[in-house]
């Protein structure tokens, strides 16, 4: 091979390496944005705990699970849109950002309020959240 061919091959190799690095960087940035959204939803859910203390139990539980369901929907949308394959690791991080009171109640499969007194939609949200976090509960409980 002459000198020009070797230089061309090195340039192609460097270009391919730069392309791979860019791809990995973009994927990490996308995951970072998703985690930021999940962190906001976990914080929102955690903020509703004060309602349990203040006596607004049904409203607080509705808010907690609405935030969890919205977080799940955002996660699914983003994972599908950007073809994120390690979805469970994102769910685990979402779960670990929840207040331990919420996590303990998810582990018991109901909140510390009479399940029968809750509106059917809230009951469905609780069941959906329990199913969504099932693998995380098993891993971190």
Automatic annotation (TrEMBL):
<keyword id="KW-0812">Transmembrane</keyword>
<protein>
    <recommendedName>
        <fullName>DUF4760 domain-containing protein</fullName>
    </recommendedName>
</protein>
<keyword id="KW-0472">Membrane</keyword>
<feature type="transmembrane region" description="Helical">
    <location>
        <begin position="6"/>
        <end position="26"/>
    </location>
</feature>
<keyword id="KW-1133">Transmembrane helix</keyword>
